Model the fold of this input.
Amino acid sequence: MARLVVVSNRVAMPRERLSRAGGLAVALREALQAHGGLWFGWSGEVGEQAAKAPHRVRQGRVDYAVLDLTPDEHRQFYLEFANATLWPLCHYRLGLINFNRASWDGYLAVNARFADALVPLLGPDDVIWIHDYHFIPLAAELRRRGVRNRIGFFLHIPFPAPEVLAALPGHERLVRDLCAYDLIGFQTTGDVRALTEYILHEARGSVAAGGRISAYGRDLRVGAFPIGIDTDGFERLATIGACSPETMRLSESLVGRDLVIGVDRLDYSKGIPQRFEAFHHLLGSRPQHRGKVTFMQIAPISRGEVAQYRKLRNELDALTGRINGKFAEFDWVPVRYLNKAFSRETLAGFYRHARVGFVTPLRDGMNLVAKEYVASQDPADPGVLVLSRFAGAAREMQGALIVNPYDTEALAEALDRALAMPLDERRSRWEQMMAVLRANTITHWRESFLSQLRA
Done:
């Protein structure tokens, strides 16, 4: 069988604990170990020199090859264009876009340098699978260097509607480069529709049945491949985590109170301030919940160098103080806000203990926290998922209470309903969602994409 080559911005190196790397890293490493392959990308390090050859490590049947970024590359490629231009664009936050020509040029230059480093590592039969918005132009750069291998691309974040994408200077180049792939995968049919509408109305290409696209002199396919989780594995983690010292400490500290939990990377796309405001409204409008429910928001800090993220952190600090200052009692603090990461095992135990999973992004490609929360529940006494309609997971998790995260009062009403929901309804909703999670696991996602790419 042909070797698999995975390209991603971050590479889960052999020394890295996969319990912290996440389910996607587990799935990709399993695929590489099964078929033999190469994992290529950024090392996560910044060095003064731009090395032409990557640092390489081999473990078992998997080769790992990583490049450092220079300080200028890290700023232009990663901080400015990827995270301050493409990220807000794809999450429909046009007012936060910070575009400049230097960062655009830096983004293209890093993709060109990574292509130069990858080409010597490729065999003629390798199947190449490139991940996420950092490397959209990479296939086009490989094609320019004579690579004719099958190349697939998967976008883990939303793809913007044509009217939104057109706000980006250079959007034509970006989509032209995207069409250098043989197969493009998105999380939802809405993302597929956004690209096909761009192809039809902006690129003047054609779209046929089965997701077949013709544009810029290329024929390719596009499809929705909603990513799943390791459902059985997460169920086992939750069973173990429920008895962990951390979960027992959490349970003891709650003193029998219900727990509402949110877990997100600290990011403006996650709707965390709106979540805090909704909990504030719940306590203010429904006093029966005061002293009986605690909201715990876990939000590890990321991209702390970006101004918008520092502003968000200050806003959440202020909201926490305002809510606790208004409602706290000497033996109860309504909001617990933690800027730290926990292992997947610990989180699974926390999810299992929580009566409500509060997952309300303003826009999200999928949001695996929603799926992990459901998989962690006790079948005999499951909790309730409150889920934003703008998360990709909402297309599958129909047993959740689907909400509009911009409607504070509706969020509070959903929390109230979730906290009061009878056991029979909770079980029925949970069973419906678990059926989806067992059918669409992360292994199914991986194999369905690769089978189409190889075909």
Notes: The radius of gyration is 22 Å. The chain has a mean pLDDT of 94.
